[in-house]
Specification:
With 368 residues, this protein is of the alpha/beta class. It has three domains: 134 residues, NadA-like (Rossmann fold, 3-Layer(aba) Sandwich), CATH 3.40.50; 117 residues, 3-Layer(aba) Sandwich (Rossmann fold); 80 residues, Rossmann fold (3-Layer(aba) Sandwich), CATH 3.40.50. It is 45% helix and 15% strand. The protein contains 17 helices and 15 strands. The strands form four sheets. It has a six-stranded mixed sheet, sandwiched between helices. α9 links the parallel β6 and β7. α9 packs across α17. The N terminus is likely disordered.
Length: 368
């Protein structure tokens, strides 16, 4: 091994032995390694991944779904998770101790998850307890760090997905008068509003200013929304909808509930990634759709359903930039390291953090 390879090994940069390959050579080598490792290797791929990665995925789905599939795959010694950091954490929490969860590029994070760190959350909880006493149940979207899931589990709360958010928020409001919804304010607001909670009964917690944004009597608050958002879904606007309505009045508009409230209200349908995929698959040939979600998935749906007219709700939308850090070269690099007996970027969640995070996940799954 040369000096450059030694340096790249230490820094995590891709070595020239990878970057000098053509796309075709990289693809062929990935296939060779998959054949070599067989059942010892499992590659889950999130819906938002690039096609160059998804083509090698053994399972494609949402984050929690992929973590659960990984946990059931007892033959896999190496789980190379093609997604972002919090997803790999969840997979590590649910899988056995003899399995290694690997993230091909440690820079693949999630801006939404990063908007709620454990220090901010613990500080907020302390202040909110002083204000409201023991009247709040915390919920966190699965798009959050292991530390936040653990915090929620330790304090009697649960995780939620975009598919079961309505059921979980309804459950939580039956347990205590108020909820703290982390880290995505839009999913929390849309879900609570659908359940009949008035916008005037929702406050927003600003973790930077350490203050509650609310006009009215504090006693009226039922939902406290963490001031976080998805940088992809927040970019869909009412103007996008108005443009589609103007140019394509017969086009259906379907969006993810991580979009702003006013966008969800003006769309025809909204739901989880699975809901969007299922809706498009089950729609009639010739139907027309403007989809408000991540661009890699929209492009894939366009390619898979040529009998329908499908566009992105925002024609200038970019793919999720952090998700896109997982690419073919990094996937190959991860696999080469496994073959060499030196797997890198292993995601390992602290045992105590995992224990409390499992409490939060189990509370959700028991009500699924």
């Amino acid at each position: 091994m040369g000096l450059l390879d030694e340096l790249t090994k230490e820094t995590g940069m891709l070595p020239q032995s990878i970057t000098n390959l053509t796309t075709e050579q990289m693809e062929e080598r990935v296939r060779e390694i998959k054949d070599l490792l067989g059942k010892k290797l499992f590659i889950p791929g999130h819906h938002y991944q690039k096609d160059e990665v998804i083509q090698f995925a053994d399972a494609v789905g949402d984050s929690l779904q992929l973590a659960q599939i990984s946990a059931r795959n007892k033959d896999a010694e190496y789980i190379v998770f093609c997604g972002v950091h919090f997803m790999a954490e969840t997979a590590d929490i649910l899988t056995d101790g003899n399995q290694s969860v690997i993230l091909p590029d440690m820079r693949a994070g999630c801006s939404m998850a990063d908007m709620a760190d454990i220090y901010q959350t613990e500080k907020a909880w302390e202040i909110l307890m002083d204000i409201f006493g023991d009247t709040i149940l915390p919920l966190t979207y699965v798009n959050s760090t292991a530390a936040i899931k653990s915090f929620v589990g330790k304090n009697g709360g649960a995780t939620v997905t975009s598919s079961n958010a309505h059921r979980m928020v309804e459950w939580a409001l039956g347990e205590k008068p108020r909820i703290l919804f982390l880290p995505d304010q839009h999913l929390g607001r849309n879900t609570a509003a659908d359940l009949g909670v008035a916008l005037t009964e929702m406050a927003v917690w600003d973790p930077v200013m350490n203050e509650l944004a609310f006009e009215g009597e504090l006693g009226d608050i039922k939902v406290i929304l963490w001031k976080g958002h998805c940088s992809v879904h927040e970019n869909f606007t009412v103007k996008n909808i108005e443009d589609v309505r103007s140019k394509h009045p017969d086009m259906n508009i379907i969006v993810h509930p991580e979009c702003r409230r006013e966008v969800v209200e003006k769309s025809d349908m909204n739901g989880s990634t699975k809901y969007i995929i299922d809706t498009i698959e089950q729609s009639e040939a010739g139907s027309k759709w403007a989809i408000g979600t991540e661009m890699n998935l929209v492009k894939r749906l366009i390619d898979q359903h040529t009998d329908k007219e499908i566009v992105s709700l925002n024609p200038y939308m970019c793919p999720c930039l952090t998700m896109n850090r997982i690419d073919l070269p990094h996937l190959l690099w991860s696999l080469e390291n496994i073959v060499e007996g030196n797997p890198r970027n292993i995601i390992k969640v602290d045992e105590k953090v995992s224990e409390n995070a499992i409490f939060a996940l189990e509370r959700m799954l028991s009500r699924a």
